[in-house]
Amino acid sequence: MFKHLIDIKNLDKQDILNLIRKAELFKSGELHSSSAGKTVAMMFLENSTRTKCSFELAAKKLGLHVLNFETSKSSFSKGESLLDTLNNLYFIGVEAVVIRSGENGLLENTASRLKYPLKLINAGEGNMSHPTQALLDFMTMTEKLGDIKGKRIAIAGDIKHSRVAKSNLELLGKFGAKVKLCAPDYFKDESIKNVTWYNNLAGAITAADVVMMLRVQRERHEQTDYSFEDYVRDFGLTSEKLEKYAPDAVLMHPGPVNRDVEISSELLDGEKGLTILEQARNGAYIRMAALDEILSEGAK
Ligand code: CP
């Protein structure tokens, strides 16, 4: 049991395995809600399709009351602080808030200043963390491959701006996967240590068990003087490249996908691309597990 779900680093292996097991039981229909009747607010300060829809569906399947906090119509627009907003939501009757934000560290910082027992769940924060994405990725990998200890996982693309990469690295490290990162210099994050970096896709994905491609996050780029055409040619994945270097690999992508940028349309629309939609489906079960764990009686 944990109070907030803010970062994978705050979860131990058993916490993660418990959440995955719970998600699997929700998926198979063997587990029912322990949190029905509680109230959760969705606060998405950045756009989202998968995370927002799956958190909302998860909450409804658990029998929670769901408030959709509309930032543009809220008193945020009148200058109210996040902390004051959260305190007010708690007194209105909200017990947990799912937050997506572009600001690194906002959730930890806010959680440390909360005066009331409101629970916070990270739905993606800056380029730093996206814990439920890493959990759903882990669930999908273990469904396909079993134990991931020693499995070769290649993560390729815009790693510098990717919260998905950071949370996956944290989680995969706890379970002994062999992770290779692949990016051109302008998408490398020098703060990531103790990982093998590649600047060519073939080297990174050769014999990989999982190839996880990441979205080029143009909306976060400060440096725009690279050649997009060169990037697509050198780091875009096609059926031909996957067949040549990692024919048995599970293909993953957190979404949204830039078609014909990080993955070619023919690969995305083929059998290998289906895993990406399975990731989205597992997201709803992981979010059911996270909400139920945090909101059920007995949670701290
Ligand atoms: N993977 C992911 O976070 O997608 P959304 O931005 O659509 O939620």
Can you walk through the features of this model?
This protein has 2 domains: 8-130 and 283-295, Aspartate/ornithine carbamoyltransferase (Rossmann fold), CATH 3.40.50.1370; 132-280, Aspartate/ornithine carbamoyltransferase (Rossmann fold), CATH 3.40.50.1370. It is 40% helix and 15% strand. The protein contains 11 helices and 9 strands. The strands form 2 sheets. It has a 5-stranded parallel β-sheet with strand order 7-6-5-8-9. Strands 2-1-3-4 form a 4-stranded parallel β-sheet, with helices on both faces. Helix 1 (13-28) crosses helix 5 (131-145), helix 2 crosses helix 11 and helix 5 packs across helix 11. It is globular. The model has no long low-confidence stretch (mean pLDDT 95). Residues 48-51, 124, 133, 254-256 line the site of phosphoric acid mono(formamide)ester.
The span between the termini is 7 Å
Largest sheet: 5 strands, parallel
Range of strand content: 5-15%
**Radius of gyration over C-alpha positions, nearest whole angstrom:** 19 Å
Question: What's this entry about, in short?
Answer:
It is built from eleven helices and nine strands.
Helices and strands, with pairings:
Elements: H1 13-28, E1 39-44, H2 50-61, E2 65-69, H3 82-92, E3 96-101, H4 106-113, E4 119-125, H5 131-145, E5 152-156, H6 163-174, E6 178-182, E7 196-198, H7 201-205, E8 210-213, H8 228-235, H9 239-245, E9 250-252, H10 265-268, H11 274-295
Parallel strand pairs: 1-2, 1-3, 3-4, 5-6, 5-8, 6-7, 8-9
The chain binds phosphoric acid mono(formamide)ester (CP).
Phosphoric acid mono(formamide)ester (CP) binds next to α2.
